[in-house]
Amino acid sequence: MKSADNNKIRFQVIDEKEYFFQMLENDSVFFKEAIEAMLTLAISDPKLTNQVANLIESDYRDLYLAIQKEGVQSQKNELPGCCQTSKNKK
Description:
Mean pLDDT: 84
Order of helices and strands: HHHH
Distance between the termini: 71 Å
Radius of gyration: 21 Å
Low-confidence stretches: none
Largest sheet: none
Helix content: over 70%
C-alpha cells in the first residue's frame, strides 16, 4: 500500500510542476514574481549566489552577455559631470 501512496504523491508532484511551468509560460506577471523570488533566494547564500552566477554564465550565455552589456551602459551613464564629454552629457 505504501508504494501506491508514493506513486500517487509522485504523480501529484509531477502534475503540480507541469501546472507551475504552464503558469510561467502563460502569465508574465507570475513569471516575473517567480524569478524575483528565486533570485532573492539565490542571493541569500553566497555559495548559492556563485553557483547561480556560474550557471547563467556557462549555460545561458545570451542572458549573461545582456546583463554585462547593461552593466557597462550603467557605468558609462554614471560618470561625474566633470568627466563627461559633450557626447555623453545628459
